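Cross-posted from the bioinformatics board.
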Amino acid sequence: MTITTESTSANESADGKEPAISVRNLWKIFGPTPNGVVGTPFAELSRTDLLKETGCVAAVRDVSFDVADGEVFVVMGLSGSGKSTLVRCLTRLIEPTSGQVLIEGEDVLAASASRLRQLRRTKFSMVFQHFGLLPHRSIIDNIAYSLEVNGMKKDKRHARANEVIELVGLTGYANHYPEQLSGGMQQRVGLARALAVNPEVMFLDEPFSALDPLIRRDMQNEIVRLHHDLNTTMVFITHDLAEAMRVGDRIAIMRDGAMVQIGTPTELVLNPADDYVADFTNDIPKSHVLCVQDIARPIGDRSASTTQPIESDVIVRSVMHRIMSDPDPIKVIKNGQVVGVVGREELTTVFADDVKKELTA
Amino acid sequence: MRRNLTKRMAALPLLAVAALVLAGCGDSVNDAASETATTDETTASETATEEAAETIACGDVVIAMHGWVGYTASAQVVSEVAKNALGCNVEQTQLEEAGVTYDAMEAGSIDVIVEDWGGGRWQEWVDRGAIQEVGPNGNIGLIGMYVPQWMADENPDILDGTKLNDYADLFKTPETGDKGAWYEGPPGYTTIGEKIIEAYGLNYKVVSTGSEAALIELFTQATENKTAALGYFYEPQNFLAQVPLARVNFPASDWTAPEDASGLTDYPESPLIKLATAELMASGSPFATLLTNFSWTNADQNAVAADIEGGMTPEEAAQKWIDANTETVNGWLAGTGASIS
Amino acid sequence: MKVWVDTHVPEFFRRKWVLVVGLLIVWFVIGRIFRGVHTLDLPNAQDTPTTAFLGDMAANIRAARAENPIFVYVFNPFRQGIESFIEVIRLTISEPASGGVIPLIGWFGVVALIGFIVFATSNWRTSLLSMVLILGCGILGMWTYSMDTLALTLGAVILSLAIALPIGIWAGLNDKVMAAVRPILDLAQITPTLVYLAPLALVFLIGVAAATIATMIYSIPIGIRITAHAIRSLHNGPIEAAESMGSTRWQKLTKVQLPMAKRTIILGVNQTTLAALSFVVIAALIGAPGLGEPIVRALSIRSIGDGVTAGIAVVLLAVILDRATTAAVVKSNQIPLTGQPLMIRRIGLIAAGIATIVAIMVSRQQLWAAVFPDALNFNDAIGGGADSFTEWFTTTFYFFTTTFNETFTIYILNPIEYLLADSPWYLTVIMISVLAAIIGGRTVAILSAVLLLLIVWIGLWNDTMITLTQVLMATAVVMLIGVVLGVAAGRSEKVERALKPFLDAGQTLPAFVYLVPVLALFGPTRFAAIVCGVFYAAPVVVRIVADGVRGVPKEMVEAAIASGSSTTQVVTKVQLPASKKSLLLGANQGLIFVLAVVVIGGLVGAGGLGYLVLQGASKPELQGKGLAAGLAIVLLGIVMDRIAHSSAKRS
């Protein structure tokens, strides 16, 4: 069932380092007999049949993936697809039924209760859809909470909290209470709280779904900025493809508990694994996602334009007009080397629809 | 912010402790009460404390209070004498009679009953060593079924209990349907209405009034509005002096104890009994002596009860009677070394 | 013109009513033919095998009290421990130590101390109000009684919370614990206060300790219920977040769950306190000192004045306790003070604290501050006023009240009592069970039949039916009042505001207090008990119905008005049907509240089970019957509650 696109597996990614997170054959079964499904013929049943036969629901179904160090890994799916359960299984907020989760090489599922607490206090942190702030604590005490439960002295934890407050742009709000802040500000507190422990991995469960669209955009940029500055590994859950594209290095698409496809935004758009994924990606104009290198082709017998070459990682959309208005294909360069050309031909074959839209606009 | 709350909370016990420490240093009214000379008449108990010092300490006494005025009269007179002559610290506690009060005595929350009507229903508590009979208090109790005087005047026959059936129609109420209403005493009182009805085949139905207030209300309205009423009542009870009632008599009866009262056909006259905890009686407290000696007549009790109902506080009414009967009271105090003048 | 055809009512519902009415007609006809046959009527003083058995058991328990190790080493020390604890509080504010004149703190100090405590937990306005009200208790001439009641209430509340909070928290966190305590909580909710007294007195005798323990048993379930609810109803978000940050279970509880649940828990403290207060008054029947005493005495020797003044004092105490705890709820909801306001408040607290200490010292040294001065005691005037008002009222309205009482008794109460109590018992059992089946379904019907047969077996069938008649009548009246006033209050804020003081007073006034004036008006009758039940239950039902009506979505009402409905049509076709759930809940609560009071009606001539309970308390030889009557009341309560509950669930 699982379709893992090997070419983009983190194992083989760039530097060949050990992945930050490695998940193998993870299952979570809810119902009367959670242990009577995995490894039996029931495991092959569809969602409805499984429910009929056993009364159980497989919220996470045989999921495997790797996340590289410093990567933003997005899990996407409709509500009920199991993405929230999956992220909770990774930190054992929900106890998985079976499988393996390694974070920084450590087997999380084997960790004792106190070791797990230690991991949560120091290595991972989480941001929640509805913020989950403590209403009876001031902003600074909310942010310092995990430091506090880890036994850090008040002066030290407040000093650290103040650092993060500044980092997320909440300066001046330290002594306010959550109810005094807007939704966007509250989620900044949520972010600050997650950053306070200087985590190695952050889990974000639909962090911006409860926010207004404009503020959501701000917060997405904030995440991109923070990631750029801190380079923290992130697992980011969302149901919004545009958001996934904006923040994600790679995207995993879930349906009925299983991973349907994992890939870079480009891969998903160019090669949707099935109709389900295609349905998601159809609404995204390909030109907004793809870079010129994705569509560049060898120059062949054509003569390249003499105009300035285009860098390979430029989004197609931004140079679309230039390409269309030039009768000859333009050179694409990477690290100063010409890797191919893009011209009207390339555009029209890949972006027939987009071009039409773009030109009529 | 929670810190502030905690601080505030912490302030409470601190304050309490501080207050008590400071208070402990100061001369309290209580200290003054035992130190000041008798001439300084600030409180009632000063004189008491003063005199008590000369005799054996009396200490705390809790007297049960039952819900009829006659009882209040007896209990208040005993209380006043105990307080003023013996320096007892008297407390009064309102309770239903009999079982409830016996249990309270067993628990040690009540020490004394000055007037009990039940023929030996306390025996079990006596056997357990909790309660002791202290003898009759001099009052003679007579329970009975009564009608308003005007009914007796109009139908002299009605006072013959065996002829009550002739008048059953008069006493019909919506409560009792086609039978006459027989208003029975409150739940704690000794009642044998059902047995009398059965013995004479009376066409009456028992209505449980639940409280003496209900009976008083019943007879008051029956007299004022000239309506019919047949109800439980008893003497000594000063109410009989205010609202004239006539007793319905049944053929002679043999009263012993409620449990062998199967042949009972009317309430007998019975001497009312004083009860106390065995502990009190064994303590050698002068109050035990006072209680043993205490005895007065129905007329005495009615006099005090009349004053109470006339608007005096029980204390005033009791003091008035004590002032007028110093000799009797000094008789009660014989053996305690105390007396009043 | 076919206005009366309500097309919204589903078909089965109409048929259900046809069934019920048909059944009642059949019952009435058969009951008429066999009237007076097999009614199991029993004289008050007569035992049945079951009651005699219970009587023997009670006698054995009494006999064991002096020597049995359980009593000697468990119950008696426990009783004495509680007694000493309460004694400490009483010696502080209400009872002079031996040989003394005043308790540790005189009245002036008590007023100051109450003011300070309320100021510390809420705000200065409530603090001022509390001081005025507590002074009111003295002005009513009820100072010492009020202090006794306050001492007993506080003692009982402290002990109750010490038990209720941990259990409530545990039940809030753990489903198994919740499942284990829930049936006990449900049963406690149904059991009328009067029923607790006798069995407790058997074990803990009579006096302060027994009264405190009885009060605790009454108020602990309320505390547990609300505390567990407070924990259970928390949003999961912050809790999950705390967990994700590596909190231990203890950290999660103390740093997240408890602080977040604080508001509701304080509400639980509020409810526990008010329940304890109302119970302490009734506990005068088993030796609780305090305001219950003059009320009980008023019932015995008909001094309405004392009963009324004591009743008012109870209300004043209730208002103080309620406002102080409610203000604490509001406060816990606010954002804590910082900066200058905080400084001002701290200075205020310190000043108030010093003033309080001074007041306490003065109250121990100056006679005027130690003993409540006679000059401020207006008991005679107030009590006398109440006396003459009642006198005037009863004389003036005697004809009216008597006629009303008699008409109601002859045309409504008696026919229904004939139906329930004068039909052969098996007919009544069958009919009630069939009704239960129609209303609530098969399970409830079987449960009802079994419990009713159990009552038959106990031998108190006839008395139970007499009590049931009164409960049903009172509930019917309560529902009538509840719907009329509830709809009015639900539709108009003006009406609601006008009703609020009456509802508040009605809910805080212990049922005990109305017995005296009602007795004066209606004499020793079943009707008097019904009136008391109505007084007691109506405020609650009005509130529930008003809540329901207010909860009907505005769009629904607007749509009805937009389609041309008259006001009556809006009420009958939209607001009432849409708030049906509240109506049924109201009926359920109404039944339980009414039952609690109708039983006390035994004190004003209502007879039935309540009288037997009271009789059993006083007459040792009939104690078994009293205990059996208590049991029958509980069984009857369960039957009614389950039927009402299942019908609410079904709708």
